[in-house]
Amino acid sequence: MRIDTAERLDRFRAEVRAFIAEYNPGPKRHTGVRAPEPELVEPIRGFTRALFDAGYLGADWPERYGGRAGHDPREAFVVAEEIARAGTWGPIGAGPPLAAPALITFGTPEQRAHYLPRIRSAEHIWCQLFSEPGAGSDLAGLSTRAVRDGDHWRVSGQKVWTTNGHHADVGYLLARTDPDAPKHAGISAFILDMSTPGVDVRPLREITGTSDFNEVFLDDVHIPAANLIGRLHDGWRVANSSLLHERSGVAAGSVELVRHLDDLLALGPTDPATTGRIATAVLVSDAMSKAVQSHILAGTEDAADAAAVKIFFSETNLALAEAGLALQGPGGLAAEGDPEATADGWWQDAFLYARAYTIAGGATEVLKNVIAERALRMPREPR
Ligand SMILES: Cc1cc2nc3c(=O)[nH]c(=O)nc-3n(C[C@H](O)[C@H](O)[C@H](O)COP(=O)(O)OP(=O)(O)OC[C@H]3O[C@@H](n4cnc5c(N)ncnc54)[C@H](O)[C@@H]3O)c2cc1C
Asked: Which residue's CA lies nearest to atom 51 of ligand 1?
């Protein structure tokens, strides 16, 4: 019997689209990697649980942790695209994209048994406690210290940019466990219960007026020794391995751009040169995303792929938001809540947020270095 995979995938897409239409937790008011209003957190937990229960998320996990044998890896891209197309909330936090792969690859049997079901049920929302005021692009320069004391670690330091930290139950933490080792070799990864005494989460209010990320202060926080992920001082490898798993953004970003291009065109008469240029960039971004998805599926991905998609997406997104704002003339100054604001200030928020996309998940300049050094084999920048 011949199985038409394209037709099967189309059927899967229709099924996912109908599922999202039925169970989604409501429209996402702002674009970007944002934190929901508190009242949306429970509906988002419910939707996340439903996506896992239906096998739309976590199909690639080992079967004993709820994965599905013989799953089609393209389905994960379809699900990410359909959530983006619907303009609704997907799962929030670092649990499904980062902590789960880290635990599956490096976790102890006890850690997997305890935490993986709670990621699937969304009982636990995780945050990513990597970046610090002095360590972002140069993440290996982090200085939060973990010192062993009997059967636990005592951790002190400061994290920043912690998206959804104020909603998180658990943190995926990197801390320095050997200050004398070369910087990449002295880091370990930990599971942190965010309700532990000494954890102080302070939301930052951003230029958008919303609070999507936080500062997290750690003051002599006790973490059980059993919460070390992977081997001691091997946190750099644990973190990099889990970051490699985070690929759904490759699919979701370009779908968002296509949706917002339609919104831009609906705003009214525009300068054809500008909209033509942006529309072309949106279509190129979508084509790049599809090409990289097929490289990932074929195992032929190279170091430039995800970096180039991310750069092109974030720059196109910025141009799109700028055009949407400019089209409103002086009205572009009216923000959300102002009756004069077009689409209740959606474009203003998108414009103010757009630069964050050029920084989060790897700043444009740093990704250009990745492309130059790792893909084009150009001389390394002096370090
Ligand atoms: C919206 C958002 C959400 C985030 N969420 C999280 C989160 O949940 N958890 C978390 O741990 N982190 C998070 N981050 C942090 C993110 O990973 C860092 O912002 C990013 O790695 C850049 O680090 P930095 O902000 O310290 O900037 P820096 O590294 O200080 O960079 C500042 C500038 O210098 C440039 N630069 C730096 N190094 C080089 C170089 N070698 N060559 C050329 N130019 C260079 C950069 O491109 C940038 O323009 C988030 C960031 C954003 C914007």
From this structure: 360
Using one digit for the tens of pLDDT, what is the confidence trace for 98-124? 999 999 999 999 999 999 999 999 999
Q: In the predicted model, what is the mean pLDDT of residues 321-327?
A: 93
Is the shortest distance between the CB of 356 and ligand 1 below 6 Å? yes
The residue range of the domain holding 156 is: 126-233
128 lines ligand 1 (CB under 6 A): yes
The gap from C-alpha 382 to its chain's centroid, in whole angstroms, comes to 30
**7 has catalytic annotation:** no
| pLDDT score at 285 | 93
Q: What is the CATH number of the domain that holds 172?
A: 2.40.110.10
Per the residue annotation, which of 246, 301, 315, 322 is the catalytic one?
246
Identify the CATH number of the domain in which residue 293 sits: 1.20.140.10
d(CA 270, CA 372): 37
Residue 33 Cβ inside 6 Å of ligand 1? The answer reads: yes
Residue 188: which residues within 8 A CB-CB, separation 6 or more? Answer: 146, 174, 175, 176, 177, 228, 229, 230, 232, 233, 234, 235
Mean pLDDT, the chain, whole residue set: 94
